[in-house]
Amino acid sequence: MYLISPHLPQFKANLHCHSTCSDGKLTPEELVSAYRNEGYAILAITDHESPRNHSSLSTEDFLLLTGYEAYIRTDPHCTYDVFAPETHLNLFAREPDNETLICYNPSCCKYLTLDKQQQLTKAGSERPREYTVAYINEFIRTANENGYLVSYNHPVWSMESEERILAYEGYFSLELINGNSHMRHKMEYNAPLYHALLRSGKFVHVHAGDDNHNSKSESDSFLAATMISAPSLTYKNVIDAMEKGDMYATEAPVFHSIAFDGERVTVECSPVSLITCHVGSKNPSFVCGDGDLTHAVLDVPQGARYVRVSVTDQNGRHADTRAYSREELGLFPL
Ligand SMILES: [Zn+2]
Ligand SMILES: [Zn+2]
Question: How far, in Å, from the CA of 324 to the mean position of ligand 2?
Fold first, then answer.
């Protein structure tokens, strides 16, 4: 079986992006042009508390996903505090015309005019936001019930404790790499956190995003992408592929295919220095090279808790798959 099929096209996506509709510097049109020129096929413009359907910018070879980034802060009126933890979630609409505001709170919506706030459909409790696990789980559940896939964003930058993160329920994917935080602060590569989630039985998917604002002289675009395998570039196919986990996170390396035959994985990829197969034990199997490795066959022990593959290239850039469970792999239950 294939974990990443060579028979499906891979579409390059940026699933975390800010425009002039919130605190980004580039307009949606400028972002589409920039990302298309860099070989991307998918862009989710996820402005802060600003759900927007940008489908009028979609073309046959470039797809806009509707969504937004929501935040829950320790201050119920959403005031930013650089020393306080907070939770950021990206909401990806299953249908392009879904612009529902979840758990509406006017003080969080500073980038939407009052008129626009009044026009939008709203769902969920409108009480002041609470920085509690219970409230955040209620927020995620409400978003799921109202047509969104919810991702959990940049936990390191958000300064959330691992204990809290392990208690969150209902999000479909962890932002394994956040380009902005990784580039600016060298701190947002979340493989250890992902392994902790897997050990606690939370088999969420993984993805990466630039979280670009393009407001500084140094570009924060094109740093971290999600490669999505889908039969074709339609809104439904892409959202379905994301929900199924037919995607992986990358800072540059590409997986051409990953196959599993019941005892070993065979990885074909762009040139890298390290290919690792993680199985939930202290001893992952791996091969090292001088930056020219493009192929590896790695053993999977009988007691493997899951299979997931990561690679690192000569410049230290990663690509990571999600974990595939024993059940998915057709292995007998432990
Ligand atoms: Zn954020
Ligand atoms: Zn963001």
Answer: 28
Kindly state whether residues 165 and 178 are assigned to the same domain: yes
325: CA distance to ligand 2 center in Å? 30
Pick the closest to residue 48 from 72, 13, 31 (CA basis). Answer: 72
pTM of the complete model: 0.97
Range of the domain at 314: 253-334
Contacts of 50 (CB under 8 A, 6+ apart): 21, 22, 68, 109, 111, 112
**Distance of CA 271 from the midpoint of ligand 2 (Å):** 30
Phi and psi, residue 240, nearest 5°: -60, -40
232 and 299 co-located in one domain: no
Instruction: Give strand pairing partners of 247.
Output: 228
Alpha helical stretches, state H, the chain: 28-37, 114-119, 133-145, 155-158, 162-167, 179-185, 191-199, 235-244, 326-329
How many whole angstroms from 301 Cα to the centroid of ligand 2?
A: 39
Amino acid at 304: A
Q: Which sign, positive or negative, has the C-alpha torsion 241, 69, 106, 127?
A: positive
Say whether both 140 and 228 belong to one domain: yes
Is residue 273 domain-shared with residue 158, that is, in the same domain? no
pLDDT at residue 161, as a whole number: 93
Asked if pLDDT for residue 196 goes beyond 80, the answer is yes
**Residue 7: both structure tokens together:** 């028979």
